[in-house]
Amino acid sequence: MGAQASKQMDRRKSISTEKKTLSGLKQSCGCDYPGCDYHPADRKNWMSGLKSDKIHVNKIVWPGTHDSATNKIGIPFISRPFARCQSLSIYHQLVRGTRVIDVRVQEDRKVCHGILVTYGVDVVINDVKKFLSETQSEIIILEIRTEFGHEDPPEFEKYLEEQLGEFLIHQDDHVFGKTIAELLPKRIICVWKPRKSPQPKAGGPLWSGGHLKDNWIDTDLPSTKFDSNLKHLSDQPPATSRNFFYRVENTVTPQADNPILCVKPVTARIHGFARLFIAKCFAQGCADRLQILSTDFIDEDFVDACAGLTYARIEGKA
């Protein structure tokens, strides 16, 4: 018992030290980078505000959400705090400026996060369609994967094609070098990641899992995650020379051996350091590799941070 208590005290000290490390870095280095003072007038249409004929897909810094469809997961006040990573619906995330959605499904087409289940994937699809009907040139990356430990939903690829077919941008490596205007009226890059079923084929309406990569670091230590994100990002080729999307997740994850297991207070340890991360990318010479930046509980400032860097790239300032 004493050993366990000692271990917990050491863990709490590590977390406190790492939070202070990031805060100190923010104070000493600041969060300035090209485009940091840009704020879109209309986040619902922030891509349109940058002009669709100027934005190349591989120059966009895409604001994304982690475990996007968990706003109503589990039982309120009981299991929900342990799995809820977003408080907004998919539609309201998109209105706020999110452009990369991360959805996990199980065999019956219900959205899940581990063992906890929420609404059916139809809710996600309908929210996406509603947003697209209200906008004209916003592009979305919709990633759907079968959750770990589950079987693929039967005929799910066919279902996605039937539901989203008119909006789907077909899998083609040339898409990365095109402008949004060249892709319209198509609006969705849908990445389907089954666990056992065949991957979507080149030229088809859905994209295979290899087109959206990341290096997930499972930790609740904010500086450890921050530094690991920088290292893995620096190992990537520049965004303009690769034919896949690379995601950095500005999140930390509750750990079973720590008494704080609710997502919100844990992820808050790193949430406010997204702008610092971008600034450090410039300081370390890897800002040209940054492409998707994802977070829990997305807010306006996070969206603005990504839109601002996108603006700077379009204007030739970054």
TrEMBL record:
This is Phosphatidylinositol-specific phospholipase C X domain-containing protein. PROSITE patterns: PIPLC_X_DOMAIN. InterPro entries: PI-PLC_domain, PLC-like_Pdiesterase_TIM-brl, PLipase_C_PInositol-sp_X_dom. GO terms for molecular function: phosphoric diester hydrolase activity. Residues 51-193 form the Phosphatidylinositol-specific phospholipase C X domain. Pfam families: PI-PLC-X. Residues 8-21 have a biased composition (Basic and acidic residues). One of its GO terms (biological process) is lipid metabolic process. Residues 1-21 are annotated as: Disordered.
